[in-house]
Amino acid sequence: MELYKNKTKTIWYKAAALGSIWASFEIVLGSFLHNVRFPLSGTLLATLGVILMITFAQLWNEKGLFIKAGLIAALMKSISPSAILIGPMTGIFIEALFVEISIFLIGRNIFGYLIAGITALYSVVIHKVATLLILYGFDIVRITENLYFFLSKQLNINNLSFLNALLILSFAYVILGFFAALIGFYTGKITKQSNKNNLEFNVKGFKKDFLDIKTTQKFSVYFLILHLITITSIFIIISNLALEFSVIISVIYLIFCFFRYKSTFRHFKKVGFWIQILIILIISVLFYSGVQNLSLLNKDGLIAGLTMILRMFVLVVGFAAISVELRNPFVKAVLFRNGFGNLYHSLGLAFSILPVLMEKTTNPKVLVKQPRKSIVSIVQNANSIYENFVENIKQRKVIIITGERGEGKSTYLLNLTKILKEKDVSIGGFIAKGHVKEGKRSGFSIVDLHSGKEMLLSSVEKIGETKIGKFYFDSNALEFGKNITSYENISKDRFVVIDEIGPLELKSQGWSSVVEQIFESPEIMQIWAVRKDLVNSVLRRFAVSEATIFDIKNDDIESVIEII
Fold first, then answer.
1. Are 408 and 422 in contact (CB under 8 A)?
2. Cα dihedral 330, 333, 338, 343 in deg (nearest 10)
3. Residue 250, Cβ neighbours under 10 Å: how many?
4. Computed over its alpha carbons, how large is the radius of gyration of the chain?
5. Diameter over CA atoms, the chain
6. Across all residues in the chain, what is the average pLDDT?
7. Which of 95, 309, 406, 547 has its CA 20 to 30 A from that of 276?
8. 463 C-beta neighbours (distance < 10 Å), count
């Protein structure tokens, strides 16, 4: 017998709370500002982010909190209707990074908060410049400078150089960061003085699908590596070879991505996206050769504009394809083994609370009219959200029966359930009954422990679209299993058996929804059959707080019964 206890640090739960609050503001207010075409909406959202972080810096003092919360908020921002793949996500994380570094170096005092606010807001300028350079290359610098000279001439401000204009812009962001930090500082003071808690939060488990995997999506680690190499190679080709050859190579890559990852082209359906491209092309043609040679027939400008657009297409589609490949179960397993399991579960918690936050606390009009009141209102509930997360995880306790593949876990479970029933222990769920054909495992049926009914679940012959290893899975049998473990059927049981939790569940398929549903009733203890090599992955996948693990080779049934 082995006892397992979740070692997730509480900082991740606080990061989930802060990240979900930050993301709720970003998504609701960001979508509102985007829809009303509000100018400098990104700067306004960055200012709000600084206020939030400086406020929380006075409530929670864990080191690394803002980096973790920024990463969570950035990933959650990706579901926003107004989100563009690269910009907002990296912007949020960089902002959090600057705040974390400033407070770490200077300390949690007014001076440290002011420096944090200034550097974080100025990171908006740095991030914007870096994004433009990455998307469009250095031609964008030449075009922007020429465009500035043209506008300054029209406005009769010839005495203001391009460099001085950048300095004035920088100074404006420094002042904005200064006042954002001050607002955050006083908001934190007000929040600390009040213990008001006016929201009821209820975390129902990991209800989000951000990292879930569609059954129709195929994955390949080789393609993940190929995308990284291809994007780099195409950029080198674009920079050194003729546009015609660059277009051919890029179009081949884009076509491949279209057929393999159709969702990566969703941004191209927006009219605003194409308007933006048209504006870039016109500005490039007009201003590439300077303000003295304005012409709509500028060949060099046309080539430069098309080159920038080509770079953007490749980068946007390529990064979207990479984001899909990163959901590969193998990649996810590698991330778990290397310490990213905490991030995965923190994201789950944050997504689970997001609908409540968006519904009850982030009215866009109130945010614009009374920003401090809105922030104080939601921050006052941060501890409630955090405690809810911790309590949710504490309730995740299971019993695991483990052994090697084909060693007899199902038989062991069947004998265990018979003895428990003889002792009048209420137990439901299902057992996986194996089938053998010509000396080889040919499939499994699931057997209802209450009624004794059974149904073919998997087979080496094609009985459904989902395939794991050599077995095909029948979706009707999966529904049969879900019905067996529905609350109506197990509400009177003390224990529920699920045989087994494995590769499908690690992909958020199979019985994963069943497991999450039963966790909502902590009075019911789950008993899982899990292959020995998957135990740790399964425990991390479902954020189990405590587990009693029995090895069928070393732990006899009588001992297990006694402990249960």
1. no
2. 120
3. 22
4. 28
5. 95
6. 79
7. 95
8. 18
Rounded distance between C-alpha atoms, residue 27 and residue 82, angstroms: 8
Length of the chain: 564
Write down the pLDDT at residue 16.
85
| Structural domain spans, the chain | 9-208+339-392, 221-325, 395-563
CA distance 307 to 237: 11
Helix (H) or strand (E) holding 466: strand 466-468
Long-range contacts for 363-371 (Cβ within 8 Å, ≥24 apart)? 363/28, 364/28, 364/29, 364/32, 364/33, 367/25, 367/28, 367/29, 367/48, 368/29, 368/32, 371/48, 371/51
Nearest of 205, 192, 196, 514 to residue 389 by alpha carbon: 205
Instruction: For domain 395-563, give its CATH number from 3.30.230.10, 3.10.310.40, 1.10.540.10, 3.40.50.300.
Output: 3.40.50.300
Terminal C-alpha separation, the chain: 12
For residues 347 and 210, is the Cβ–Cβ distance under 8 A?
Answer: yes
Residue 400's Cβ-count burial label (10 Å; 0-12, 13-18, 19+) is buried
pLDDT tens-digit series, residues 409-437: 988 998 999 999 988 889 999 998 888 88
DSSP-derived secondary structure letter, 408: S
408: left (phi over 0), alpha (psi -120 to 50) or beta: left
C-alpha distances out from residue 234 to 322, 339, 535, Å? 15, 33, 42
Please tell me the least confidently modeled range out of 122-136, 144-158, 307-321. 144-158
Would you say 11 and 376 are in contact if contact means Cβ atoms under 8 Å apart?
no
> For the whole model, what pTM was predicted?
0.64
Nearest-CA neighbor of 170 among 122, 102, 116?
122
The sheet carrying 471-473 orders its strands as 2-5, 546-551, 397-403, 525-531, 495-499, 427-437, 440-448, 454-459, 471-473, 466-468
Calculate the dihedral angle through the C-alpha atoms of 10, 538, 497, 407, rounding to the nearest 10 degrees.
Answer: -140
- Name the β-bridge partners of 454: 447
Cα separation, 421 vs 433, in Å, equals 19
Is the peptide bond preceding residue 520 cis, with omega within 30 degrees of 0? no
CA pair distance 69, 76, nearest whole angstrom: 10
Q: How far apart are CA 111 and CA 102, in angstroms?
A: 10
Name the pairing type of β-strands 546-551 and 466-468.
unpaired
Phi-psi region of 493 (alpha: psi -120 to 50; beta: other; left: phi over 0): beta
pLDDT in tens, 90-113: 888 899 999 999 999 999 999 999
Total Cβ atoms within 10 A of residue 374: 20
DSSP letters for 540-560: HHTT-SEEEEEETTTS-HHHH
Residue-wise pLDDT tens digits, 465-497: 777 778 888 888 888 998 999 888 898 899 999
Six token digits for residue 37: 């075409």
Q: What tokens appear for 336 in the block?
A: 């778990």
Q: What pLDDT sits at residue 335?
A: 59
CA dist list (Å): 51 to 73, 123, 182, 183, 277: 15, 15, 8, 6, 34
Residue corresponding to tokens 């609050």: 21
Dihedral over Cα of 153, 159, 164, 170: its sign: negative
